[in-house]
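Continued from yesterday's entry.
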Amino acid sequence: MANSLTTTEIMKIIPHRHPFLLIDKVEDYEPGQYAVAIKNFTYDEYFFRGHFPEYPIVPGVLTVEALAQTGAVAILSQEEFKGKIAVFAGIDNCKFKRAIVPGDTVRLETKITAVRGPVGVGEAVATVDGKVAVQATLKFAIMQ
């Protein structure tokens, strides 16, 4: 059976808050292993006013951040890292395959593939309707 988290429960694990909390719910996760989250992008998102008024699309860097937050749920729910902060240490092989637009529901999956001390790597993919929108290798460091 899947482990799921509400927004309130997510905020007990990662420090992000509105307007920068970019995941709405976690559908499944295993501490230290992986997390699968959902983000519903509505037309009311603050960045659509300027990116771009005639053709609103989610900035790619925000999708990468949403993938990182998903990975942060996985790593920071692990007992030894609870209460800490995960920050970017690198982004490799990032590819943007399709635009994400208002009304899209994005499935965010990040699998932790390596951890050595406070540094780790995750393989991340964001999909819309089963089609890859963004994929990347994310490197992180645990702070505090």
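--- second protein ---
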Amino acid sequence: MKSEIYDLLSQSSSIVSGEVISNHLGVSRVAVWKHIQQMQAAGFEIESTAKGYILKSIPDTLFSWQFGKRSNKIHAFNEVSSTMEKALAMAKDGCPNFSVVVAEKQTHGRGRLNRAWQSDKGGLYFTVILKPDIPPSEAAKINFAAALELVHTLNELCGIRACLKWPNDVLVENAKLAGILSQMVTEMDMVQFLSVGVGINVNNCPTGIDPPAVSVFQLVGRKTLRAQILSCFLDRFEKRLTSDSLKDIVPDWKQKTITLGRRVKVKTTRNTYEGLAIDIENDGGLILELADGSRQKIIYGDCFHTEG
């Protein structure tokens, strides 16, 4: 019900009468008022007048009812150990495709190779649970799609021209703006579910991190509503996944990467490789040309640019 009220108020630049809202929802005006009070207590500046209600300002909050038709698939928490862990448990319990776990804070957020992910207040931390009908070899394309649509989202909403570092970091001038991590569970030769976790520095100010990081706030000089970023990203990501454009995702991803053509060091769980990044294959593997002229394909690892 709050989702319906929020949609009505946010889509109108003028006063919306209590009668219009109550008729739309099929409830009493007293019930409408109770929900309005709860929304006001949550920080939404809703002005009550003799003629009705008008939404004056929206706080930087993450409530499930802020996401319209998606609300029943958005699971918002104040604090979790990590959105990936919560998503894994929900996926095993049979949650619907494209369910989303989002949290204000992670106490044990993690990145690639189990590195800790700094989850400061004001960042955007979420995991999308997918149930694609694909073999495991195609899963990298979904990760690439998430990274690419995140870059497009940040450009569309914030005017940020971000780029991609293999496998799935979002950078602005070599400073990390966002990271993406996925976890896959297979059954026989098909993907049972895939969790795509995303951490974005939005209204926080990351400091003391190596390699360096940056936030949306630091780049644009103002706060950006995290719910708006998440909503835009989910729309773009879902559209990409439900179209035939996944087959073109690797060429599209290459247009936004700054890894190819650079010397890099890649750390995997067992080895470290150094060489010239020369290509990305359709399964997401990075092709390095090593010092002796041989080529090495790396499916997964932590990549560091060693030259400009």
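The chain has three domains: 2-57, 64-254, 263-305. The chain has eight helices and 14 strands. Will compare against the first tomorrow.
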